[in-house]
Specification:
Elements: E1 12-14, H1 17-24, E2 30-33, E3 41-43, E4 56-57, E5 62-64, E6 69-76, E7 83-85, E8 91-94, E9 97-104, E10 111-113, E11 116-119, E12 122-129, E13 137-138, E14 145-148, E15 151-157, E16 166-167, E17 169-172, E18 175-183, E19 189-194, E20 197-199, E21 202-210, E22 216-221, E23 227-228, E24 231-238, E25 244-247, E26 250-258, E27 266-268, E28 272-277, H2 279-282, H3 285-290
Parallel strand pairs: 1-2, 2-5, 3-6, 4-7, 5-8, 6-9, 7-10, 8-11, 9-12, 10-13, 11-14, 12-15, 13-16, 14-17, 15-18, 16-19, 17-20, 18-21, 19-22, 20-23, 21-24, 22-25, 23-26, 24-26, 25-27, 26-28
Length: 298
């Protein structure tokens, strides 16, 4: 059972999913995962036969994860997100980690958390099956989301992701490990990140493109919020018989893309302050500094 009164001086202290749901869903509350617990692991069932179907609403003012890890959660709720914030007040979530989170049965993007800032959180071993929305996150047209020093390790299985990774979210000092299909149709444009900023981010892994018809376009960002000092070492494979164009759009300071990893049937184009580098150059700090990408070690 949760302790505390939910004030900043006396926050709710929780250690179970039920108590976390109640406390985190309380608007204006201050919540902490038990900082003195001997084992900071909330291990759930992980079974498709007994899935979690109720989303986790985070409408509190502050949720301090204190290094807790929520593991083995199988979320199965059609047309819903797992983590949701519906409050118009700013919500702060820090140091909370999710391992082996499976979204299935038509679940939408993992996060729908407008006006929320995640700091030092991680989502690893996250799997989607035929996801029908953004892979990761959705803010709103009036309130974007912010992620600082977060890690996202995502795997999508099934049909190609039609909407990309994220929309209306600003990422700073974040790491992405991707393993995802992406559908790019002829004469149409798909964005990995829409209305989203990438600053000091590292992106690795693979994206497998498919689609029908020539003239399909893959944009890393849509240009509404440009990249800055981001490094993209993602293997991009084209399984289509048609040529697909890769556009990084623009950056306000040098960002790098590893060109060795761009497969055949993909024509890549320059963007403002975009450097295409080889894998060897991407590991050479002196070279990266010489082209304007700020690193002190690799």
């Amino acid at each position: 059972m949760a302790t505390g009164t939910g004030t900043q001086a006396n926050p709710y202290i929780v250690s179970t999913l039920a108590d976390l749901r109640t406390a985190a869903g309380t608007a204006g509350a201050y919540v902490e995962m038990d900082p003195d617990a001997s084992t900071k692991i909330l291990d759930l069932n992980g079974s498709a036969t007994n899935p979690v179907t109720q989303r986790l609403d985070i409408n509190c003012t502050s949720l301090a994860g204190n290094g807790w890890r929520i593991r083995n959660l199988y979320f199965s709720s059609p047309s819903d997100h797992f983590l949701v914030s519906t409050t118009t007040a700013v919500t702060q979530v820090s140091d909370l980690h999710f391992d082996n989170l499976v979204c299935n049965n038509g679940a939408k993007s993992l996060l729908s958390m407008a006006n929320t800032t995640l700091t030092g959180c991680s989502f690893t071993g996250v799997k989607y099956f035929a996801a029908g929305a953004y892979l990761l996150v959705a803010g709103s047209s009036t309130h974007s989301m912010t992620c600082k020093s977060c890690t996202f390790a995502m795997q999508a299985q099934g049909s190609g992701i039609p909407y990309g990774i994220a929309t209306r979210c600003d990422f700073t000092d974040c790491n992405f490990m991707l393993d995802m299909p992406f559908t790019v149709e002829g004469g149409r444009r798909g964005n990995l990140f829409s209305y989203s900023g990438l600053e000091d981010c590292l992106m690795r892994g693979s994206v497998t493109l498919s689609g029908t018809g020539n003239g399909g376009l893959l944009y890393i960002t849509d240009g509404n919020k440009p990249m800055k000092n981001s490094f993209i070492a993602v293997e991009i494979t084209n399984t289509s018989e048609y040529t697909i164009g890769l556009y990084p759009v623009k950056a306000t300071a040098t960002s790098c893309i590893v060109k060795d990893l761009i497969g055949s049937g993909i024509t890549y184009y320059n963007g403002d302050n975009i450097q295409y580098v080889t894998a060897a150059q991407g590991k050479d700090a002196a070279y990266l500094n010489s082209v304007g990408f700020p690193v002190t070690e690799v």
